[in-house]
Design goal:
8 strands
């Protein structure tokens, strides 16, 4: 089921990665993000592979697995994949949908464009990752 525009804006605005963004920043991220659905047990990101996007969990839940061990569980409003998008290095963990899960996905090339065009987005991301 597609997320309403207001739901997308609320999700991005509440996500810690984009904390404190103004309306323009939230709009830029929302406009670049696409909604992706994953069935239970689908691998969304695979450890060791170069990532092509970052994700915000809209509905459902995922588990983060490093070297075969679950190290975290993430739910609505939480994010993953940001490091690989920013540094181009292989992903340091796998992420697997625990239940049917919907994410907002921001492709690397779109993330880079938004970061260049909206300095407030770049600053918000730096504050979280620093």
């Amino acid at each position: 089921m597609a997320l309403a525009a207001s739901e997308r804006v609320s999700l991005i605005g509440a996500c810690r990665l984009f904390g404190g963004l103004d309306e323009a920043g939230i709009g830029a991220v929302s406009g670049a993000a696409v909604e992706v659905e994953f069935p239970a047990e689908r691998v969304i990101a695979r450890q060791g592979e170069v990532g092509s996007g970052l994700f915000i969990v809209a509905h459902g839940a995922v588990r983060v697995v490093r070297d075969g061990r679950t190290i975290a569980r993430l739910g609505q409003g939480e994010f993953f994949g940001e490091l690989s998008v920013l540094d181009g290095a292989p992903r340091n963990a796998s992420v697997i949908a625990e239940v049917p899960t919907t994410c907002l996905a921001l492709a690397t090339w779109d993330a880079e464009r938004v970061l260049r065009e909206e300095p407030g987005v770049a600053l918000a991301v730096l504050r979280v990752l620093a």
